[in-house]
């Protein structure tokens, strides 16, 4: 899946059979244009704050992406007047790394950076990139058990290997207190159409050892992706649940390597969700949280739209319509909106899964400029590659 994001590096959940995990991208081809959000008005929403630094975005793009689109949730129907002019972003070097560990896991989904403040003394170093694998060596979806560490020199090593049944999905975060949080969305193994089990969140220490796990009926129901607001020992986790078509929020305390649930709530509901023979599951996926304005952005694959949920950090029930405000709907350029991340200028980068509203002519192809009212980002990868961010 990313910007792979979330390379899921934005999430690309094509779930096309993959034979290897070597990632290569021509980073000279990333264009940005202006974006228009015709359904958005000033009183309804504010643009998100930047989350990825320029340096991190460069590394992310160097690791690989599928065709992505950047959209700016602006304050009005027109692009903001202070938007930077369209430009081409260049990168010093291409980067190639393999995310296949010794057990042969494939289909990389989650991608996360190790922050500068991460505690020393473990297996991880600031600037490393972690990648979770969703498939096993037989390429069965929802059976991957490993997280690979990609160092800044592109050398890889095994950070974590769990015990089945696991299916490590797009949700992946490195926390300030020295732990890694990953979503587990395993398959039920049913035939002819498998689907996800409720799954769990896993807490892994900096030495790659499982510290705790959390399952929570009604709030962790096929965790396809998540995003976090990391305040140290207190963490807000927003989870997209493909079994129920909901987004939940867990307010957690992490102490002594254990989860403590302080509050829990469903903050959005009603998104299209269903098992799928190609993509495994279709449902709400990419999440970006704007803490300053308390807005959660949700990309829903089945709806093929991007939504904004106000008051997401404190609300205890979904908004009246369940899904929130539609801020972007475009069947010409959205083809199963999947992983989502945020560029340094605050624009949202959305990847396509091709599982919904597929257009064979656009698979792994550049999204062409349609004029000055769109801003997009494109990253090319070898055919057949997907990675989530």
Give me a quick take on this structure.
The chain is mainly β. 3% of the residues lie in helices and 36% in strands.
What is the topology?
Elements: E1 22-23, E2 31-32, H1 54-63, E3 68-71, E4 87-88, E5 97-98, E6 106-113, E7 129-135, E8 146-150, E9 156-161, E10 168-174, E11 179-184, E12 200-205, E13 210-214, E14 223-230, E15 234-241, E16 246-255, E17 258-268, E18 274-276, E19 280-282, E20 284-290, E21 295-300, E22 305-310, E23 325-329, E24 337-342, E25 348-352
Antiparallel strand pairs: 1-5, 2-4, 3-25, 6-7, 7-8, 8-9, 10-11, 11-12, 12-13, 14-15, 15-16, 16-17, 18-19, 20-21, 21-22, 22-23, 24-25
Walkthrough of the structure:
The protein is mainly β and 389 residues long. The protein has one domain: Neuraminidase (6 Propeller), CATH 2.120.10. Helices cover 3% and strands 36% of the residues. It has one helix spanning 54-63, and strands spanning 22-23, 31-32, 68-71, 87-88, 97-98, 106-113, 129-135, 146-150, 156-161, 168-174, 179-184, 200-205, 210-214, 223-230, 234-241, 246-255, 258-268, 274-276, 280-282, 284-290, 295-300, 305-310, 325-329, 337-342, 348-352. A four-stranded antiparallel beta sheet has the order 6-7-8-9, with no helix packed on it. The chain has a four-stranded antiparallel beta sheet with strand order 10-11-12-13, with no helix packed on it. Strands 14-15-16-17 form a four-stranded antiparallel beta sheet, with no helix packed on it. Strand 15 (234-241) and strand 16 (246-255) form a beta hairpin. The chain is globular and about 45 Å long. The protein starts with 21 loop residues before the first strand and ends in a 37-residue tail after the last strand. The model is unreliable at 1-50, 60-91 and 364-389 (pLDDT under 50).
